[in-house]
Every structure is written in structure tokens, then in C-alpha cells.
Amino acid sequence: xxxxxxxxxxxxxxxxxxxxxxxxxxxxxxxxxxxxxxxxxxxxxxxxxxxxxxxxxxxxxxxxxxxxxxxxxxxxxxxxxxxxxxxxxxxxxxxxxxxxxxxxxxxxxxxxxxxxxxxxxxxxxxxxxxxxxxxxxxxxxxxxxxxxxxxxxxxxxxxxxxxxxxxxxxxxxxxxxxxxxxxxxxxxxxxxxxxxxxxxxxxxxxxxxxxxxxxxxxxxxxxxxxxxxxxxxxxxxxxxxxxxxxxxxxxxxxxxxxxxxxxxxxxx
Amino acid sequence: xxxxxxxxxxxxxxxxxxxxxxxxxxxxxxxxxxxxxxxxxxxxxxxxxxxxxxxxxxxxxxxxxxxxxxxxxxxxxxxxxxxxxxxxxxxxxxxxxxxxxxxxxxxxxxxxxxxxxxxxxxxxxxxxxxxxxxxxxxxxxxxxxxxxxxxxxxxxxxxxxxxxxxxxxxxxxxxxxxxxxxxxxxxxxxxxxxxxxxxxxxxxxxxxxxxxxxxxxxxxxxxxxxxxxxxxxxxxxxxxxxxxxxxxxxxxxxxxxxxxxxxxxxxxxxxxxxxxxxxxxxxxxxxxxxxxxxxxxxxxxxxxxxxxxxxx
Lengths: 268, 312
Prior knowledge:
heterodimer, A: alpha/beta, six-stranded mixed β-sheet, disordered N terminus, B: two-stranded antiparallel sheet
């Protein structure tokens, strides 16, 4: 529990601007409304867990944060800046693709299905974005990539192609790839859901380590143990709305809403 | 390791190394023997008929390495290579345009493909050849100015006609390749802050190549044969040369056979090349590569010799 103390310290140091702020966020796919007004705040330096049944909209919300999905109404801010738009007076202007790309540099994302680049080795996967996006020199990128692979425990797998790695190893490379851009916010979209149970631990260890270093993380997960142990805040979503939120230890042990109780009784 | 199962009609599988290997008499495929005999007989009959025809076969080897023929072969190869180059570059460009979010570029690409795929390449060639009826002069301001008929040489006509037509076909092949790449790849690249262009160039196109290469090999072989059409616009490639020689030497049919033999030879060489190119691009996939013919022969010879060793 010492880690919690240190984390609250770091978040207290930062300004009062939340890392992510959602105000009445709505999102529809065709006629299906997936998000029906989400309001929440992710403080800088905290580990924010999103749980809920599949189809509850938690992954969609995560994808809205780095503008992989466009929201239909409401406002979504990252680090005080509007996502996907620029506001002048009371008018909204859509951002150009290049401006969106610029903002995405600061937001790392880890996918359920890893999405490593199969035609590149683990090391090249991690080197790619710094070289192509930031213009880092090859030598520098290689050095940093080697460090990051070492950090996720895969220094000896640098030359392997994704198809030669296990799911857990691929996901750790994917985390290293996201970290290579030095993001201020990391999004995790069910990072352990596609893994064999015995490989989940390695990935969670890396995420725990990352949380301890003070990274702001939004984690969509079914790992209640991780949420309870590492999470600072937790939100239970169902049917496109936030049903319950609070400290993960409180919500998970003593849920207030019937829907939360029903869900937790099935997964715990 | 191989057990000497009598006769070798079935595939030479290595049986599981059990305590006692099974010795069984394989199924006899009498139908295969019968059909082989029938096929050989038919082939023989056809060969006999041709050999008895009024064709002077001796003329073919006489002209096979004639200088004019060789120059025709060279021009055919040159035209194939250049029009495929135009086709591939144009095809990738059109495919990207077609898939673009920009409605203007997408519509232009759609129109191009619609037009060039929708009209016969022979008609396109003749139209290019006769475009002087529409444009009397070609005038690029201070850069270039000439009469159309001087500008549009048979070679340029052939190149444009074949290349631009090929681009429309290659566009569809490339589009299929680009669509075959998992969407998660684009998302991952975008999430890292990569631009559309970089995502395409660094992530999507390299992965699309595995899907694009095999049908492209097919297109090359097709192109090699399609070049024979440009004989109608006075470009002296292989078929044209063969026809010219045929008229002057009094052996027109023989020269057609000669041309056919050359085309068959060239496409055979290309087919072998295509096979190895596909193997090269399949390397990234986890699937095991099929053995090359050479590896197959080596394996068969080895298993044959080991089999002999067992029986001896």
C-alpha cells in the first residue's frame, strides 16, 4: 500500500487540470447509442479503471479519448484541451488530420489484440514511431527501444518477429511501443483479455510497474484483482452510462447499486 | 526411417515410429494407368497429325535465333517491363486514391478504372494511334511542341496503351491487397501519431505486398502475351517480326509457330521466377513454405536411396 501514498503525492503536485475530463459524452453507431452521457474525470497520475459487461461502451469511450472514434455530443478534454476540435467563441472547428496526429503522440494506446506490426521485429516495432513521427535518430531510437524492451522484461526477444512471441510477450512489446513516444497518458483496452490465463500475470506486472512510476492510466479491464490493488479510481459502466464510481476497494467490496452487485457477483 | 512398403504409388509418408510399423498393400489406382495411356495416345495422335501437315518444320530452327527475331524478343521484353512498371506504379496510386476519404480523388480513380477496364485494350491501342485526329499538335508550351504523329511513335503508343490499361487492373489488385491488411494495424499506427501517408507507406503497403505479389506475377505473364496486340500499331515486337519474316520467306505459318514457341519459353521462365518471388514474400507468415521443385527432387532422391539401403 506504500505505492498509493507515493501516487497521491504525485497527483497532488500537479495542477488541478484533470488529465481526462468528459462532460455529457454521447456516441452513436448508426441508430445504436453506445454512450448516453458520460461524465467523469481522470486526475493526473492516477490509475483509472473502467469495468462493466461487454457492450457497456467502456472500450468505445476509451477510443474516443484519442479520437479513434468521434463523439456526437458533449465535450471531451485531454490535459485541458478539447479532443478532435478547436473552440473559437462558441463555434467548434474540426481539427485537421495532422493536428489530431500531433495530439495522439502524447497518448499511448494498448489494444486487446496487440496490433503489433508483423513485418517488423520487436525492436523495430518500438523504434518505428519515434523515428517516423518525432524524427528521432535511428541510433537514439534503437538505444531507447532496447531500454524499454528491457523494462518490460524482453531484452532477449528484441530480434524476434511478433509471430515468434507468445501473446503475453507481444502485449508487453506493445506497451513498450506505446511508451517509446513518452506519452503523458496511457490507454489500455482490455490488455489481458486475449491472453492465456498464465500469461496475464506478466502483463499486469508491467502495468503495475508503470503505475508506480506515476503514469496516468485509463484501463478497461476485467481483472478485478488488478483494479483493487493498483487502481485509484474505478467506474462501473452499463448500457452506456456510468452506474457507479469511487475508490475501487470500496466499490468492489461494497457496491451500492443492484446492477453493480449483479455484475460483480458473476465475475468475482 | 522409411519402411519399404512395396511399390511407390502413394506419397512417401514416414509412418509413425511405433513398436512395429504397419506393412500394408496400398490401394491400386487402376484408373490412373488407363487415363495415362489414353492421354498419351491422344497427344501422340495430335503430334502425328501436325508432323504430317503441310508445314516446313525445318524453317523454325533456321530462324529461331535470327537477329530480327532476337530483336523482336528484346522489344517484347522491354515493352512488358516498362508497361508493367507504369501499371504497378499507377495501380498503387489509383488504389490509394480509390480508398481515400477525399471524394474527388476517389471519384477520379473510380472513373479511370471504369473507363480503362471497360474498353478492350486493342481498341485503346488503336485509339491512341489515331489520336492525331483530335490533337493535331502536342504543345507543352516552351518545353515541347511537335506534330502528334511525330510525337506518338509506335513505341509510345504501345507503352501508353498497355501501361495505362494495366494500371486499371493493377489498381483493383492493389486495392484488394490494401483491404486485406487488418484495420487494427492502421489504428495502432494512428494511435502512435503516424500520419495517413506514413501509415500507408510504412505499415500497410509492406503487409499488402504479400497479397499483391502473386496476382501481379500473373499479370506480368499476361502482359508478355498481350504485347503481341501492339503489332497492329506497327511496333516491331516478336509477333510482328515473325509475321514480317513469314511474308518474305514464304513460311507464314511456320513463323507463327516460332513466335508461339518463344512466348511459351518466356512465360515458362517467368513462371519459375514468380514461384520464387512468392516464396520470398511468404516468409513473414507462420505457415510453412512449400518445398521448391529442387528441394522436392532432392528429398525424393534421398528417400529413394535410404529406402534402397533398408531393402539391401
